[in-house]
Write a structure and sequence with these properties.
This protein has five helices and seven strands; from the N terminus they run βαβββααβαβαβ. The protein is of the alpha+beta class. The chain has a single domain, classed as Gcn5-related N-acetyltransferase (GNAT) (Aminopeptidase). Strands 1-2-3-4-5-7-6 form a seven-stranded mixed sheet, sandwiched between helices. The longest helix has 10 residues. The chain is globular and about 45 Å long. Pfam families: Acetyltransf_10. This is N-acetyltransferase domain-containing protein. GO terms for molecular function: acyltransferase activity, transferring groups other than amino-acyl groups.
């Protein structure tokens, strides 16, 4: 990986299938268990020409699951994930979103407008049951777009 140019402007880029070679390599290096699906929307945050973070949006019935949020290890804790999700808000205004998160990240997602889901749609609940386990407890959070985006 090239040294990061901290003065380079950041921009978001959407990666349609099959144009995801760079994103797949990023996941392989930083989140090797991630598997990208053709049906997912995928966005990357770039600093200059370098991919520094990515996220995917998986359709699940009438809903969308936020998945695969990954930030380059050298940039974690610096607001990069927050910036990426903020830049995706225009997309996020048109769907109901859910995320399955580790309890340690619950406050992070809540700071972005996600909240504890009280009524979880069956499609989301079934998928959650495949990922959640006593060894890997997860929380289901949902997202409601701010009024200015709806």
């Amino acid at each position: 990986m090239m040294p990061l140019d901290n003065d380079a402007l950041r921009h978001i880029q959407w990666h349609p299938y099959p144009d995801r070679k760079e994103m797949k390599a990023f996941y392989k290096r930083h989140m090797p268990y991630a598997r990208m699906l053709k049906k997912e929307a995928a966005a990357g945050l770039y600093q200059g020409h370098q991919l520094i973070a990515c996220v995917r949006f998986r359709p699940v019935g009438k809903f969308t699951l936020v998945t695969g949020l990954c930030v380059h290890p050298n940039l974690r804790g610096q607001g990069v994930a927050t910036e990426l999700l903020h830049r995706c808000q225009g997309f996020m205004a048109y769907h109901q979103f859910f995320v399955f998160t580790d309890p340690s990240l619950q406050k992070f997602y809540q700071s972005l407008g996600f909240h504890q889901s009280t009524e979880t749609p069956n499609d989301i609940q079934q998928l959650y049951c495949r990922y959640h386990s006593p060894d890997r407890p997860l929380k289901i959070l949902s997202y409601q777009a701010p009024a200015q985006f709806t």
